[in-house]
Amino acid sequence: MDRGQRPPLPPGSGWTGLAAEYNEFVSFCMSVGLPTTLADLGLGEAGKEKLLTVAKAATVPGETIHNMPFAVTPEMVVDAMVAADSYSRAYQQESGQQAAAAPH
Predict the structure, then answer these.
(1) What are phi and psi of 101, to 5 degrees?
(2) Does the chain have fewer CB atoms within 10 Å around its N or its C terminus?
C-alpha cells in the first residue's frame, strides 16, 4: 500500500464504525497539534530500515507494548506505523483538514 492511500475496509465487516471513530480521533489530534503522520514526526522520508529501528526500540523487553494480549514484533509495529500514516494522510486529503501548529 502506498503512503497516503487509505487501507480498504472489508465490506459488511463492521469496520465502518471503526473508521468513523478513527476519523474523529485523527481530527481531534490534528486540532490540538498532535502528530498523526510520519511526516509530522520528522519521519516522512524514512525508509523501512529506519522505521524498523524505531520499532525495535519500541519492542525491547520491559516496554509497555508487551502488555498487549498477544506477542508484538517489530515488523508488526512498522506495519501499524505505515498503516496509520497512510490512513491519516488520506483523511487529511479527503477532509481538507490540516494539523494545527503544535504548542511550544
Answers:
(1) -65, 135
(2) C
Kindly write down the DSSP assignment for every residue of 65-92, as one continuous string. GGGSSS---HHHHHHHHHHHHHHHHHHH
Task: Kindly report the length of the chain.
Answer: 104
pLDDT tens profile 4-48: 555 555 555 555 677 788 889 999 999 999 999 999 999 999 999
Q: Where are the alpha helices (DSSP H) in the chain?
A: 15-31, 48-58, 74-95
Distance separating alpha carbons of residues 8 and 6, to the nearest angstrom: 6
**pTM: predicted TM-score of the whole model, two decimal places:** 0.75
**Who's near 82: CB < 8 A, 6+ residues apart?**
1, 3, 38, 51
